[in-house]
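To: structure subgroup
Subject: Chain for Friday's discussion

All,

I'm putting the inputs and outputs inline so they're searchable in the archive.
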Amino acid sequence: MLPFVKLQGAGNDYIAIDGRNKNYDWNQLSIDMSKPAFGVGSDGIVVVFDSDVADTRMRIYNPDGSEAEISGNGIRLFTKFVVDQGIVSPKDGILKIETGDGVKTVYPSITENKVVSSKVEMGIPNFISSKIPISVPGINDNDKPKFQMEILGHKLDITCLSVGNPHAVCIMDQNVDDFPLVEVGTLVEKHEYFPNRINFEIVNIISRDKIRARIFERGAGETLSSGTGSTASASASRYNGFVDDHVEVVLDGGNLDISWDKNNMAMLEGPSEEVYSGVWPR
């Protein structure tokens, strides 16, 4: 019997579990619990462990069982779980969380002893090809990670970057709501250019401070939102000169805010909500 809490942020939903002193095959558990008909249904699981370098440690698993380095929405929901459950408490309004992409700083907003939203330091977006990584003929670390792909007859102008995990962003004139994201995203994710597979985002520029994005997550498929996907979409838009230093990202599941400080640190902010709690019987 395994207690869990299901949470969502802008439609991105995760199952949170206290994994301390528990021995499970977390990869398989994520596959089983994430199934919408036969499990709980989610975009993956986030699991709590003790940390020697931070206040707590988060491991995150996709619905296909693969482990992700980081999830922007996942870490915000993880923050709500560990604070609301009394596992850890913020120190001076700050929580340090160990992830597969290093230690992240989170600033939770708390009302009546419950986290209602969080701002996360996502890191400085990395546009160096070998650090993403990508392997595109003719592109090396001194070149901009921009190129064109043709998938199912669609010519895609791609900008790649890492925000702790790899992303390929396509800024397009076509309305993203009319684009066959699932069909194209399935092929982009596993394309030979991307040795670690890749997350794929399509973006419309609305204004200097607002974009519309749809997201195909590596290991999960299309999701209603994604924190790293929103960060990557906004960062690629900024890299290409389309937006300023504060951007609202309009997603199918809600809106997230992305900003950058004077050191180019990307900040992600959005809501966190508990959906329900339960016990996994297996």
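Points worth raising on Friday:
The mean pLDDT is 97.
The CA atoms of residues 97 and 270 lie 17 Å apart.

D.
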